[in-house]
Amino acid sequence: MQLFLFLCITLIVPSTYQAAASQGSVELDEYSFDKITGKFEASLIKFDVAFPYGDKHDAFVALAKDAKDVEELLVAEVGVKDYGEKDNEELAKKYGATKDNFPVVKLFVKGKKEPIAFDDSKGFTSDELRRFVKENTGLYLSLPGCVKDLDKLAIKFTKSKLDERKKLLTKTQETLVKLGNKDALSGKIYKTIMEKILEKGDDFIKSENDRVKKLLSGKVSEEKKKELGIRLNILQSFQLFDKNGKQKEEL
């Protein structure tokens, strides 16, 4: 009987430990939470069971890996136990997280008193987590369909005056040639958005953003949904954010 129990523990414990480990994510507790989060411009924290698993955890892990080079952003987890010493239970409750609503994701932004809650009504995916961070911090996190070199040009374009914008459009066209077929669809969207802004002004970003979201809320094919999603992601690259991570009103 003792040998049987030993074998069970040997087999179960490693797999449980592996489920809790997340590459790119830091484990926090009630003692280290404030000390570590306070050193970053933004901290994306998931409150969850001590040994998480499943699609939502996988989505968070994927985001953590993708954000590994974003030095201003901390991606971390608080594992909560509902047995024994009940580690981190009080810390989780402080931010509205309990075993009844796990996992709960909160974004802590330096200078803001209260964290921002992630709304998973559109899905708990790595793409939605990226979008959530980007919209509320202005930090660069590549979204599906976005191209880093073109994102840089889009940001410069948005900040520039008319003459410089025309030069950046030309540079974008030159970049498209270098990128080749792989990013052809995305490249065409960047170029079209720049042309529309030159034609209609900065208000085009908001109106187009609203138009695409409206289309996505209706009945569209999966292929069209994917295309519209890429367009929505690229539109974010043309949006200016203030020092608090909020989109500026003029856009």
Describe the structure.
This protein is an alpha/beta fold and 251 residues long. The chain has helices at residues 2-20, 33-37, 55-66, 89-94, 126-137, 148-159, 162-179, 184-200, 203-217, 222-236, and strands spanning 26-28, 42-49, 73-80, 104-109, 116-117. The chain has two domains: 15-137, Glutaredoxin; 148-236, Endoplasmic reticulum resident protein 29, C-terminal domain (Endoplasmic reticulum protein erp29), CATH 1.20.1150. The protein is 52% helix and 11% strand. α3 crosses α5 (126-137) and α6 (148-159) packs antiparallel against α7 (162-179).
Brief characterization of the structure:
This protein has 251 residues and is α/β, with parallel strands linked by helices.
Helix-strand string: HEHEHEHEEHHHHHH
* Overall shape: elongated
Distance between the termini: 69 Å
Major sheet description: 5 strands, mixed
Strand element count: 5
Task: Please give the radius of gyration in angstroms.
Answer: 22 Å
In the CATH scheme, the class of the largest domain would be Alpha Beta
Number of domains: 2
Give the strand content. 5-15%
Mean pLDDT across every amino acid position: 85
The strands making up the biggest β-sheet line up spatially as: 1-3-2-4-5
CATH architecture of the largest domain: 3-Layer(aba) Sandwich
Determine the structural class based on helices, strands and strand pairing.
alpha/beta
Q: Would you identify the CATH H-level superfamily of the largest domain? A: Glutaredoxin
CATH topology of the largest domain: Glutaredoxin
